[in-house]
Write a structure and sequence with these properties.
The chain is an alpha+beta fold. It has helices at 3-13, 22-25, 53-66, 118-127, 144-149, 157-160, 195-199, 233-245, 258-268, 290-306, 318-329, 331-335, 352-365, 396-409, 428-431, 434-447, and strands at residues 18-19, 45-48, 69-73, 89-93, 101-104, 109-113, 131-132, 167-173, 179-183, 208-215, 217-218, 222-230, 252-257, 279-287, 311-315, 339-342, 372-375, 380-386. The strands form four sheets. A seven-stranded antiparallel β-sheet has the order 15-12-14-13-17-18-16, with helices on both faces. A five-stranded antiparallel β-sheet has the order 5-6-10-8-9. The structure holds flavin-adenine dinucleotide. Residues 31-32, 71-79, 82-83, 94, 114, 137-139, 142-143, 145-147, 149-150, 152-154, 203-204, 208-209, 332, 417-418, 454, 457 line the site of flavin-adenine dinucleotide.
């Protein structure tokens, strides 16, 4: 990056908060997208770490003047290459905007700086005896701003929904440098178009989120976890919509196939409590009393038995519950070295058994396997395309396209969680008409007339 830009960044953020050597910047060029499919980062970059929205605004105004790309960077845990700079860029690391976590007990809201990590926010809210924030989406190191612009999902969305459902207000630095407030501590707001919800899920392309207001809820005093095993995936996946139809809404309804269970056990040494079965479900319930939870667990167990469950076990103690969640959280590390890509298709929850069947057939056709886990209560599954002899297999593009087309056949989405970013943009036409894509591009142009913010995310320029 040329010296004029380096000096300007030092002038705005201070000498200590600018990195211009490639060796110092290395940790800021890539996210968690699998190395076999991520684009190559442009190394002609500079990393700047502003301390507030005003400094960000100054940086953006300068970038517009000089036509330099800007890439905001959160925790770098994204899985779609969205934080990887493709053009010479000013990378704005938001790590210093991490001071505020302000709980407003009267209105049941929390105001958070964008650079606070998910782990830090959860820890703070968990300490509060009566308040609860359902956002448990993404990697612990993800930042709040990153979670909002990726509209993250995660394990606990069945009962409370995804990030979008909890955001009430945003402070945003627009791509033209103005600082604006969207929404607020309002439960109702129908004035004009809803720009806040456009910003949520915008993948860094429409503005830099600097503050977020989330809605808080009352904490339930009890939780319970139930696991069940099945001989086949059809029974396991079919029972979940039946349970929801009975009016039982768990916090989470997760699916793991046997390949996942074996791989996690082998990789971590952790023990899965159930012996037999080819497909497994994990239900997490919360409620006011133990009696209520036992009642619901029994009804879930009965439903599972009616779908030929082999075993149903209730984990009551917090130690047992933690062990199950820890096991579930190891899917990604267990497969990490073998992955080409984890897809994140979603369909209507009742169609999960059909799509699992189709995906398994497609994998067989290519003489491979596609381990499947997922948030089946949300209709969202993660199926993995694996390496062959350590390499991306020659059929990768073909099998992936076939799998995404299958999601389309069921009226689904290419990406339920990870976002379009850079690695899924070529599939926009699978899900949207030309006119819809044209409208989206028009929105980008209105927000960002010089196309400086995250160019190459969602669309080619
Ligand atoms: C192990 C693991 C588990 C995961 N589990 C889930 C899951 O369950 N559900 C799920 O949905 N995702 C999951 N993810 C994906 C990831 O955690 C989420 O996408 C998360 O929202 C990314 O946040 P981040 O701060 O790391 O963003 P980054 O990766 O840093 O950035 C992502 C995009 O957001 C932009 N950006 C970052 N901060 C801001 C900001 N303040 N304002 C504007 N733009 C910004 C960046 O420019 C980039 O375009 C997982 C990832 C890993 C590695």
């Amino acid at each position: 990056m040329n010296i004029e830009v380096i000096n300007k960044m030092k002038e705005i953020a201070g000498e200590d908060w600018v990195l211009s050597d490639l060796s110092q910047m290395a940790g800021y060029l890539y996210d968690e997208t699998e190395p076999t499919i991520r684009p190559k980062a442009n190394e002609d970059c500079i990393v700047v770490k502003p301390q507030n929205a005003l400094e960000i605004s100054e940086i953006i105004k300068y970038a517009n003047e000089k036509s330099i790309s800007v890439v905001p960077r959160g925790g770098g845990t994204g899985l779609s290459g969205a934080a990887i700079p493709l053009t010479p860029s000013i990378i704005i690391s938001l790590e210093r905007l991490n001071n505020t976590i302000e709980i407003d007990e009267e209105n049941l809201m929390v105001t958070v700086d964008c650079g606070v990590t998910l782990a830090a926010l959860i820890e703070k809210i968990d300490k509060h005896e009566s308040l609860f924030l359902p956002v448990h989406s993404g990697d612990d190191g993800a930042q709040i701003g990153g979670l909002v612009v990726e509209n993250a999902g995660g394990v606990r969305a069945v009962k409370h929904g995804i990030v979008r459902n909890h955001v009430k207000g945003l402070e945003v630095v627009l791509p033209t440098g103005e600082i604006v407030q969207m929404g607020g501590k309002l439960l109702k707001n129908n004035m004009g178009y809803d720009l806040m919800h456009l910003m949520i899920g915008s993948e860094g392309t429409l503005g830099i989120v600097t503050k977020v207001i989330f809605k808080l809820y009352s904490k339930m005093s009890n939780t319970m976890t139930l696991i069940a095993s099945f001989d086949n995936n059809k029974d396991a996946a079919s029972v979940v919509p039946r349970i929801l139809q009975q009016g039982i809404t768990p916090l989470a309804a997760e699916y793991l196939d046997k390949i996942n269970i074996e791989k996690i056990s082998e990789h971590t040494g952790l023990k899965w409590p159930l012996q037999d079965g080819n497909a497994f479900l994990i239900f997490i319930l919360d409620g006011e009393s133990e009696d209520e939870l036992f009642g619901k667990s029994e009804r879930i167990a009965e439903a599972c038995e009616s779908y030929n469950a082999l075993e149903c076990v209730i984990a009551e103690s917090s130690k047992e519950q933690r062990a199950i969640l820890e096991f579930r959280s190891k899917v990604y590390p267990a497969f990490c070295d073998e992955l080409v890509e984890t897809l994140d298709i979603a369909v209507a929850p009742s169609l999960i058994p059909d799509i699992i069947d189709d995906l398994t057939e497609i994998a067989k056709k290519y003489n491979t396997i596609t381990p499947i886990c997922g948030h089946v209560g949300d209709g969202n599954i993660h199926n993995m395309i694996l390496r062959v002899n350590g390499e991306k297999p020659p059929y990768f593009e073909e099998i992936k396209l076939e799998m995404l087309q299958t999601a389309m056949k069921y009226g689904g989405t290419v990406t339920a969680e990870h976002g379009t970013g850079k690695i899924k943009k070529k599939y926009m036409g699978l899900q949207y008409s030309d006119r819809e894509i044209e409208i989206m591009k028009g929105i980008k142009r209105v927000f960002d007339p010089h196309n400086i913010l995250c160019p190459g995310n969602i669309f080619d320029n």
